[in-house]
Amino acid sequence: MPSGLFSKRINDAVGLAPSDRELLKALRVTERLLENREPLRRTGDAAIQCAIVHEGFLASYKSTFEREQILAFHVPGDFLDLQTLYLPVLDHTIISIGSSRVGLIPHSDLKDLIVASPNLAGILWRETIIEATALREWLCNVGARDALASIAHLICEMASRLRAVGLVAEDSFHLPLTQQDIANACGISTVHVNRTLQELRKRELIRWTNRTMTLLDPDELKRVADFEPDYLHG
Amino acid sequence: MPSGLFSKRINDAVGLAPSDRELLKALRVTERLLENREPLRRTGDAAIQCAIVHEGFLASYKSTFEREQILAFHVPGDFLDLQTLYLPVLDHTIISIGSSRVGLIPHSDLKDLIVASPNLAGILWRETIIEATALREWLCNVGARDALASIAHLICEMASRLRAVGLVAEDSFHLPLTQQDIANACGISTVHVNRTLQELRKRELIRWTNRTMTLLDPDELKRVADFEPDYLHG
DNA sequence: CGGAACTTTGATGCACCTCAACCCTCGTGG
DNA sequence: CCACGAGGGTTGAGGTGCATCAAAGTTCCG
Known about the structure:
9 strands, globular, 6-stranded antiparallel β-sheet
């Protein structure tokens, strides 16, 4: 139950045997509430547990010489920190964007799970692979697209991923990011993010008020973004 | 034997049980020679095998609207395409940089291996996780560093990875990339790559002639690059 | 020896950055 | 119910890192 969204997403994507579903349900999950900008993990931490996002948004980032680069946004149903099963020391920081609720699962339980069900092990492995796939697409975003396409792409990605867990209604969804977050994600300045968002609004592609994002013209937005959702895998 | 460099690298990093070493040695590996710029995989291919780099360099890239983004360079000892065990359809293209030699291993054999040795399964899983770690660092490179730091960082990374497989002697190593490759990796233009390399040479940080890269002042190069090699894990 | 691929150079322009100010919103406390 | 402070959004002016275009030089290889 506590990992419900994760189970649902996996079941939709690749199916889930009843026995595996039971194993997932039986996991001992500790709830944790996070406030806005509260860190869940910090660079250098040695993690002993993984997390599932139950509600809200989180972001991973690395700090370089003088800029912070956001590597990924995490939404409900996402499994976090799976990499720490094999590389316990974190290479990035994870904070909450707005308040959020996560479920914590001890590494030891997950390792038992992996032994008990090779099939589930494969599913978790697959999750880490999909994460890498998203990183590759993000890399294109930052390296090969201009600001307009990059921000449009980010919006398309969030819409797709949130839709997969039922958090999009009528092309509208809650998106609590600040313009600073978008800047750190896309590798541009906040000022330029602001002006680019104005351009997206002027073209009547999006509306974004009260932290609610509405796609006014999804097809044209995808065209501007050069968005090919295959990489999300479900 | 055919997967020797891979075994060596893994053994150096996390150790390898004799039985697992035997399992690796027993894999049926088909050799394949690739010419300069010859593709090993193309976007959209459904892979039925994975590859180990025996000799030479390869690059993965994605094509976007009007630019190509290089996602990773692959060096001897690297395991390629592990992701296709779970996501057979490739989201990127892999080509040879200069001529190279790879060993091909059928998915079926690897899946048997995963069942036979959970320990080896973990090692392969760990490989895919390290790949993701490198992608995160690359993302910082493209998003948060300027051209000088970005190229310097790429050079440091290649030096570290090649050193791990014994291909660096006296801070010199073979690096068959073109300036266009560096441009596509770092998300900048070839002209600017050229001028930035001149700057690195003028500062007496590197020499790069006949495709041989020499680090003249490794410490200062790392400083310029903001290079922290932890993410390479071995 | 010829041509293709790659490197280098110069000139010009733009996308985006930085700095700085002002605005709005919203939560808090008196 | 208002004061106020902080965080976030918006705007303008000026600057720069890098792109683009074009052409010449160089290296490599058949």
